Amino acid sequence: MQALPAPAESLCLLEMGGSGGDAASVDLVASVGGLFLNIGLQNGVLLRTVLDSVTGDLSDTRARYLGSRPVKLFQVKMHGTAAMLALSSRSWLSYTYQSRFHLTPLSYDALEFASSFSSEQCPEGIVAISANTLRILGLEKLGAVFNQVAMPLQYTPRKFVIHPTNRSLIIIETDHNALTEKTKVQQKRQIAERMVSTAPEHVREQVAQAAEQFLSEDLPEVVFSAPKPGLGMWASAIRVVDPAQGTTVDQVLLDQNVAAFSIAVCQFSGRGGAAWHILVGTAKDVQLQPRRCSGGNVLTYKMDVESKQLDLMHTTPVEDIPSAIHGFQGRVLIGVGKRLRLYDMGRKKLLRKCENKHIPNFIMSIQVMGYRIIVGDVQESFHCVKYRPVENQLVIFADDTNPRWVTACCLADYSTIVGADKFGNVSVMRLNEDVNDDVDEDPTGTKSLWDRGLLSGASQKVDSVCNYHVGETIMSLQKTTLVPGGSECVVYTTMSGGVGILVPFTSREDIDFFQHLEMHMRQEHPPLCGRDHLHYRSYYFPCKNVIDGDLCEQFNSIEPGKRRSIAEDLDRTPSEVAKKLEDMRTRFAF
User: Fold this and answer.
1) 8 Å CB contact between 507 and 584
2) What average pLDDT does this structure show over 509-526?
3) Read out DSSP for 71-130?
């Protein structure tokens, strides 16, 4: 007997992942396989229950929210094994892959009915109904968590923003040691002219023909590579992409040696009105080491909502690299070198309202929540800045004691900062409740010595809450929700193409359980190379208040004897440990 929280819509009895329900213990069914009863409910929840093939007992029930519509279940075949298609407001596929259960959403339109389908052209397919159309589908890339569609770009993408009105992507592309298309044509023409002018008189006609052939041939750079002009040469572009169609709507090619470093979408409460403006920070003749440039500009564009074309309004010259831009209270904050400036919209350029010159080296990121501004320095971690509108001042009221080479930053809440550095560390810092952000600047130097802070720093410091060594340079951090009805998490991406998430614990019981599981996994399942796991995760800073979920999830892949031993030490069964791991994953992702 199985009590249900809502009326059932459909049932599916399925044997998955193993030889059947002849296992001596239900504890091993979650990893070996067996007979499962899947129940789709009218409230959009899918229940999966282990069914004993001898006694008919139901155990180890697991629930998953799939969508807003009643769940319909259909049995299909994938890679010669039984699988199940669950249809709600979104379509899901339940299958086993590499001795592990997967319940993955399909990147496809909503389906109403489905059935298994086989033919010569499609040996393992699905025939389905979507609206008033009949469709035949073939599923690929089993085991992949994310579906990705690659779009070739002209240069390396650096940053992008989403236009709030038409949801189009505005991407800035920048390459060092590269030439623009216009410069390539000019250099090609100069080479052809030099060939003709330096040729002897009796062979000039043949050389001219060879020069014409040289100008007319177009060798693909994907095969033959692009010319490398040397250091200090930059090529950049601004591209508008329609994400639904995957097509380029508009492209703005910047001049040779102009590099785009930052982009933001802002609204100006003054002259700009309610229209959205795209601000792009560029610099000319940039040299990386030592860092210098001949000047920078902030390009202000306005986008036509219908045609999605960019229209340049004006250009604002600055004296250093505009490395970070962020909207703030109807104005815009721009990090120009190591200066933090507040600008407003003007007729011919942006108008500077105030600035702070106390950032030590170079501004890498700007994040805003309310009147608080979090500024990431390239070498000296984060600085907390408060804007005081009455005095029109940007005042630093707190900073960090640890040096961090910041690459990415996001705000978890009003007082919590999640940051990453270029050595592969991710950290969580928090402002204490007793931190006072209503501080004054001291231009006269008459402030008390104990109020000035240590070594010219701020008088208040942030507390380091979490430290963890990922092992790859993190390029972006974003607080988001990955599944409908799921909890918020922090998603990070790395330079080598990895995607990971940081999830918060909600109870002390979960923290104790995963801490003990991680401790046992370190002992029973050490890394292949023999390196100590805790030593690696504490490579630069001691690992603090972070549990390695990748290590814990290897519990299902170790041998059954060790699995039972670890579960007994945790006062649980192996199936309860596997269920706890799956619940933690499905609460935030799939």
Assistant:
1) no
2) 93
3) PEEEEEEETTEEEEEEESSSEEEEEE-SSSEEEEE-SS---SEEEEE--SS-SSEEEEEE
